[in-house]
Design brief:
Bound molecules: iron/sulfur cluster
Number of strands: 0
Oligomer: single chain
Structural class: mainly alpha
Largest sheet: none
Distance between the termini: 14 Å
Helix content: 25-40%
Number of helices: 4
Length: 83
């Protein structure tokens, strides 16, 4: 089911408020806010080296039933699922 723009915005804010990316060893500080698993956000523009991923311990991971990792480099959950 497609989300309305309002729902999408709400979800995005929820993801960003809970995202633990800034505490991750792979994180590179370049003014981004994380939430790379979310399709409307997607890959990081500055992170390129995989040094460990803490997504599986993030509250969003459980809430959104995520299955992948390294969203910052490999793309959002949808992208990694080939959608
Ligand atoms: S699952 Fe990963 S990318 Fe998504 S909000 Fe959590 S820490 Fe950030
Ligand atoms: S997506 Fe995973 S690897 Fe990338 S910064 Fe977030 S927690 Fe770290």
């Amino acid at each position: 089911m497609e989300m309305s723009p309002e729902e999408m915005q709400k979800q995005k804010e929820m993801v960003l408020s809970m995202c633990t990316c800034p505490s991750c060893p792979t994180w590179v500080e370049c003014g981004e806010k994380g939430g790379f698993c979310f399709p409307a956000i997607g890959k990081s523009g500055c992170i390129s080296e995989e040094k460990g991923c803490i997504c599986t311990g993030c509250p969003v991971y459980e809430k959104m039933e995520l299955k992948n990792m390294y969203y910052c480099i490999r793309g959002s959950e949808k992208e990694q699922m080939g959608m």
